[in-house]
Design a protein that fits this description.
single chain; 112 residues; alpha+beta; YaeB-like fold; five-stranded mixed beta sheet; 4 helices; 34% helix
Length: 112
């Protein structure tokens, strides 16, 4: 089976803004996750398709909800949410859509 790697890892404007507010150890872990996800885009926890809210698209500037979403843990009860998109010529692009508190993430995904 072929191994997929991400040709690029980008932060959405919302994620970049949230990154600037993170504490030092959270930023270090985020940088670690970016390195890991570039090598293994499926390293996070997959979010069930039924849990991907349409509001995630609106918040991220997409016209429709992402076809897939994954999450990863950060220190101090924070999470990141990302999506994968691919194109035969460009490869796999990984976009970190959100960096938010565990409580905000639960609310966004409809767990509470």
């Amino acid at each position: 089976m072929a191994r997929f790697t991400a040709s690029e890892v980008r932060l959405s404007p919302r994620a970049a803004q949230a990154r600037s507010r993170l504490e030092r150890k959270q930023r270090r872990r985020l940088d670690w996750w970016i390195s890991r996800l570039k090598l293994d885009p499926f390293a996070g926890d997959q979010i069930p398709k039924a849990r991907i809210p349409s509001s995630l698209a609106k918040r991220s500037g997409f016209s429709r909800p992402p076809a897939n979403a994954w999450s990863f843990e950060l220190p101090l009860a924070f999470r990141g949410i990302y999506t994968l998109s691919g194109h035969p010529a460009a490869g796999v692009a990984l976009i970190i859509l959100e960096i938010l508190s565990h409580k905000e993430c639960e609310h966004l995904l409809g767990y509470r």
